[in-house]
Write a structure and sequence with these properties.
The complex is a heterotrimer of chains A (about 170), B (about 450) and C (about 240). Chain A has about 170 residues and is mainly alpha-helical. Chain A has a single domain, classed as Arp2/3 complex 21 kDa subunit ARPC3 (Orthogonal Bundle). Chain A is about 75% helix and about 0% strand. Chain A is built from 5 helices and 2 strands. With about 450 residues, chain B is α/β, with parallel strands linked by helices. Chain B folds into 2 domains: about 220 residues, Rossmann fold, CATH 3.40.50; about 210 residues, 3-Layer(aba) Sandwich (Rossmann fold), CATH 3.40.50.300. In chain B, about 30% of the residues lie in helices and about 25% in strands. Chain B is built from 13 helices and 20 strands. The radius of gyration of chain B is 23 Å and the shape is globular. Chain C is flat and about 70 Å long. Chain C is built from 9 helices and 2 strands. Chain C is mostly helical and about 240 residues long. In chain C, a hairpin with a 2-residue loop joins strand 1 and strand 2. The chains are: A mainly alpha (about 170), B alpha/beta (about 450), C mainly alpha (about 240). Chains in contact: A-B, A-C, B-C.
Chain lengths: ~170, ~450, ~240
């Protein structure tokens, strides 16, 4: 691939990965009793980070989660979701370096996902004054489960997709 | 010197030679038909000419493409917009925006046209393909045929010197095929139509018909292809539907109402070949979905051998080969797909042979036509007693299509064939059904 | 899947130009965080609801607020846990169940959530997505960002559709008697189909002339009647909320 016009490729990559994250967030929605929902959002966010690195991960992960909130009728969470899932993908992308990552690194990435997602929502929702601390604590177990499962499924997804689509790594920038 | 002078040799990085000393010379304004079987390099040619290859799919390209005094291969892709444009075979891979209006005005803005000129071209092109009232509609609400018409509108609005229409008659109903034929006839610019089989709409439209063989161009030798007689095998089972009412919400906006189809009685015998005709959006696919258990009927019953059968149980009885083969293929390689049917390895190798597939090919790298063959092979191995082939003839050569039909027929599978091609319909044995205005009737 | 919340209408809020409407939405959301009085919060909560009732009707308004109801209920249930040391207004057996400060905290949060959610939904309900993007362009959102946003809105419903097709065709391959669909293979297939489209889409962008124009001036959107009045309303109403004591 030439180096002349990477902009078209970057725009397409970001647009499509953002849509993937949003669709993953929206299609499998188990409403949680505390408002919001449990979804495969984190699986797609981790996939974006594993496959395309920290920067694409940051934009696609954050934007995808935010778009899902806007479309799904919870626009008040969009900004917080953008920050939390953006940072989640960015840090995971920094830790995981393509295939050279060891098991320990993968576990570290999953731990990062769990800490950022559960801690991020807890911190930001209370900081913005959009919930009370006790309610935010109630969300933590759900977020831990969702992000941990997400990090594992994301890795399975990455392995599966690379097997079927051999030129996956060429798309990275 | 000819206005258009093409000479190309190309090889994909991961595969075999596709074009070798392919040479085409033509005058401006000529209308050319390039007729050759799937995987002969037609889509590759279109992608090379527009620049998609080797920029986005890598390979080894040699040769030249001159239009008048311009050396097109040396130009960046966006700069070629005035010279050449294409409608791709898979419309979804070229669709960019969520509204019809944005889709069509994007290239016009890039051309730097002023608002008045843009408006003129947009209404002209939308009018040409009957899409005026869809202007504010979301592209996700369009049917396959409507998407195809939109992509044609985009190309006609840009109006490049050379139009490449890659299987562009596919998915269009006879009415719109005729309209497209008239639109091409009225063009003073060069048109190259790429097709894998002859359609009656092509007659008298082209100044020459060519073919690709072993990667190079040669004159097309008309083969008097008569559809071989299907050898049907009688069976016992019978699929019936009675008093069926099918409703489907077509569009979210209130302007377009939902549509419904009523079918008093329908039957398909094992070992029978039934042909289903009808316009785009008349309900052919909806009926197929009900029969195969993917869509809930509004009323009525579906039964096999007289026993009513629940929606979910139909899925393991009736095979539905959807229009877009990629939507039914999930695994990395051809062999993985075949193995997923849990058929014996003997049957698998026999079937792959029968449908001329290479077990080691990667599914995502198959051409559209080859993917259809794989889809056919998978359902062949699954051994369902009934099968619905939804516009399977598109993108397959006539003998490819007839070999699929024959393979299914000799297993005694009850076939429901959906097609827009009248010549195929008349060559097939058995009853012909037509869906029109929400009703179904048998035609002669 | 429908990505558009837009409800067709001709109400005054529909006719409001998208640019002052965006400013109104943003200012209103910001002001909610700065407010400090009971009356202010009541207005913040009920104003978007009232406009919504007038512009899209009772059904859509209910749909919008019912989504928030579970969260509100939880917050109300949690009132006894808030500000235990505050001034008790309800005691049972000598133990304070509810304090004035606790009630106030909860009320504030509910008003904030309802107000922000309401005003944002109001924007999505009364403007088409593409018009919102056009409006943002007028506020100097970069051309490429606006382009990406439009494309995201095309791919979300497409991939949603693709997933339902994949799930359907997976179920066509199941053995008799089995139900459901295998989740990992389905999402893998969906992701592969999506990724496959990246180079195709990039090529489609370029083949339609993306990159030909060096500068992208904001497209001129015609100004409706009373444009400046609309601007004034869009700015003054949220700011005046700050004065409410």
């Amino acid at each position: 691939m030439g180096e002349k016009n990477r902009t078209a490729l970057r725009i397409s990559l970001v647009a499509i990965m953002t849509a993937v994250v949003a669709v993953f967030t929206l299609i499998i929605r188990i409403p949680s009793p505390i408002g919001g929902y449990i979804s495969l959002c984190d699986a797609a966010v981790s996939f974006a980070a594993y496959a395309f690195g920290p920067f694409t991960g940051l934009i696609a992960g954050g934007l995808g989660a935010a778009f899902a909130d806007l479309i799904g009728g919870f626009p008040q969470w969009a900004v917080i979701s953008f920050i939390v899932h953006g940072i989640e993908a960015f840090l995971m992308g920094l830790v995981i370096r393509k295939n050279s990552s060891s098991i320990a690194m993968r576990i570290l990435a999953a731990v990062i996902a769990v800490v950022i997602v559960s801690g991020g929502y807890l911190l930001l929702t209370t900081l913005f004054g959009l919930t009370v601390f006790s309610e935010a604590i109630l969300e933590v177990p759900g977020n831990i489960a969702q992000s941990a499962v997400g990090a594992v499924i994301g890795l399975l997804l990455y392995t599966g997709v690379r097997k079927a689509y051999r030129s996956l790594d060429d798309l990275r920038w | 010197m000819a206005d258009i002078d093409i000479e190309l040799t190309f090889k994909y990085s991961h595969g075999k030679d596709v074009l070798s000393s392919f040479a085409l010379k033509a005058e401006r304004g000529e209308h050319i038909l390039l007729l050759s079987p799937p995987e002969s390099g037609k889509t590759t040619l279109a992608r090379i000419l527009t620049g998609s290859i080797p920029e986005y799919i890598s390979g080894d390209l040699h040769g030249h493409f001159r239009f008048q005094d311009q050396d097109v291969l040396q130009m960046d892709i966006p700069e070629r917009i005035k010279v050449i444009g294409r409608v791709s075979q898979n419309t979804d891979e070229m669709m960019l925006f969520s509204s019809v209006e944005e889709e069509i005005s994007f290239p016009l803005e890039n051309l730097g046209l002023d608002e008045e000129e843009r408006e003129k071209r947009i209404s002209y092109a939308l009018g040409l393909f009957g899409l005026e009232k869809y202007r504010k509609v979301s592209t996700s609400e369009l049917s396959g045929g409507e998407k195809r018409r939109l992509m044609l509108s985009v190309l006609f609005a840009v109006n490049p010197e050379i139009y490449i229409l890659d299987e562009a008659f596919d998915e269009l109903s006879p009415y719109w095929r005729k309209k497209l034929r008239e639109a091409i006839r009225g063009l003073e610019h060069t048109v190259i139509v790429l097709a894998s089989h002859m359609l009656e709409e092509y007659e008298g439209l082209f100044s020459c018909t060519l073919s690709i063989k072993d990667g190079s161009l040669e004159p097309y030798v008309p083969q008097l292809f008569s559809f071989p007689l299907l050898h049907l095998k009688e069976g016992q089972s019978l699929l019936t539907a009675d008093d069926l009412v099918i409703k489907r919400e077509h569009r979210s906006s209130s302007e377009f109402s939902s549509f419904s189809v009523t079918i008093p009685h329908f039957e398909l015998h094992e070992g029978e070949c039934l042909t289903l005709l009808g316009e785009n959006g008349s309900g052919k696919s909806s009926l197929s979905r009900v029969l195969s258990g993917l869509l809930k009927e509004e009323g009525g019953t579906v039964a096999i051998d007289g026993n009513p059968i629940a929606l979910k149980n139909r899925r393991s009885r009736v095979a539905y080969l959807m229009q877009n083969p990629y939507e039914e293929l999930f695994l990395p390689t051809v062999l993985d797909e075949a193995k997923s049917t849990k058929a014996s390895s003997f049957d698998i190798s026999k079937a792959l042979d029968l449908f001329s597939l290479d077990p080691d090919d990667y599914v995502q790298e198959l051409s559209y036509g080859r993917a259809k063959m794989l889809q056919a092979a998978v359902f062949y191995l699954l051994d369902r007693r009934f099968a619905i082939l939804d516009e399977m003839d598109n993108a397959l050569s006539s003998d490819g299509f007839s070999s699929v039909l024959q393979a299914y027929a000799s297993k005694g599978i009850g076939l429901l064939v959906i097609t827009h091609d009248m010549s195929i319909a008349s060559a097939l044995p058995g009853r012909k059904l037509m869906i029109e205005g929400g009703m179904i009737h048998e035609c002669k | 899947m429908n990505v558009s919340s837009y409800i067709y209408g001709t109400s005054f809020y529909h006719r409001f130009d998208v640019r002052p409407k965006i400013i109104f939405t943003l200012l209103f959301s910001a002001v909610i965080f700065l407010m400090s009085s009971w009356t202010g919060f009541a207005i913040a909560f009920f104003l978007p609801m009232a406009i919504m009732l007038l512009s899209v009707g009772i059904k859509e308004t209910c749909r919008c607020y019912l989504r928030l109801l579970p969260l509100f209920l939880i917050l109300i249930l949690f009132i006894p846990l808030q500000e235990r040391s505050g001034y008790p207004i309800w005691t049972m057996n000598g133990i304070p169940v509810m304090t004035e400060e606790g009630l106030w905290t909860t009320f504030r949060i509910i008003a904030r959530l309802g107000g922000i959610s309401g005003v944002l939904m109001l924007l999505l309900l009364t403007e088409r997505n593409e018009d919102i993007i056009k409006g943002l362009r007028a506020f100097h959102l970069p051309y490429n960002a606006a382009l990406t946003a439009s494309m995201i809105l095309r791919f979300i419903p497409y991939l949603g559709y693709l997933f339902s097709e994949i799930r359907d065709s997976m179920s066509l391959r199941l053995e008799e008697g089995k139900r459901g669909y295998p989740i990992i293979p389905s999402i893998t297939a969906l992701t592969v189909s999506a990724i496959r489209m990246i180079p195709c889409t990039a090529s489609a962008l370029e083949e339609r002339g993306f990159g030909l124009r060096r500068s992208h001036k904001e497209q001129h959107i015609a100004r409706p009647e009373h444009y400046f009045t609309q601007w004034a309303i869009g700015v003054i109403i949220p700011l005046s909320l700050l004065l409410v004591r």
